[in-house]
Amino acid sequence: MWKKRKLLWVITSGGILIVVLSLSWLELPWMANHLGFALPGQGGLPYRIAYAGRTYTNLATCAHAGWCQSPSSGTRPGPLCWKEEDIQQHGNWPLVHVGAISTLFGSSYSLVASQSNVSSKLTVVIIYLVSDTNCYVPYGLEGGP
């Protein structure tokens, strides 16, 4: 009798664990976008990240979520990567390291911001995620300063 209960408990627990893990895996894009971590691979950057208690967004990124995958979606503004020259034209150069966002099963991405905003203790309006060599993904402040 004891072995039957133990076997039933193990099978039930294993089934529940499989269901929970499956649902968690399906919800990874939602969790990445709302909790601000990146998923591995191209297109895994979240649309929302946090820095210094503020929220920053970029609608061109969505961590593989379905709402931005369709080509007819009108939510994809401009190019994803900004080059050093683009940032200099906006007057946000030089950049300094201000933080990082983690990647599920991978190395983290650096967050950088304009040195003038960081050193003067002003609210940083744009932060950049360093995606690759000379590829900076801009995230804008959500709400107001």
Count of spatially separate domains: 1
Number of strands: 6
User: Element order, helices and strands?
Assistant: HHEEHEEHEE
Overall 3D form: elongated
What value does the average pLDDT take?
A: 86
Q: Name the structural class.
A: alpha+beta
Present the secondary structure layout:
Elements: H1 2-26, H2 28-35, E1 48-51, E2 54-57, H3 84-89, E3 95-103, E4 106-114, H4 115-119, E5 126-132, E6 135-141
Antiparallel strand pairs: 1-2, 2-6, 3-4, 4-5, 5-6
Could you describe the 3D structure shown?
The protein is α+β, with helices and mostly antiparallel strands and 145 residues long. It has one domain. 30% of the residues lie in helices and 28% in strands. It has helices spanning 2-26, 28-35, 84-89, 115-119, and strands at 48-51, 54-57, 95-103, 106-114, 126-132, 135-141. It has a 6-stranded antiparallel β-sheet with strand order 1-2-6-5-4-3. The longest helix is centred in the first third of the chain and has 25 residues, at 2-26.
Key features?
six-stranded antiparallel β-sheet, transmembrane helix, alpha+beta, 6 strands, membrane, 145 residues, transmembrane, elongated
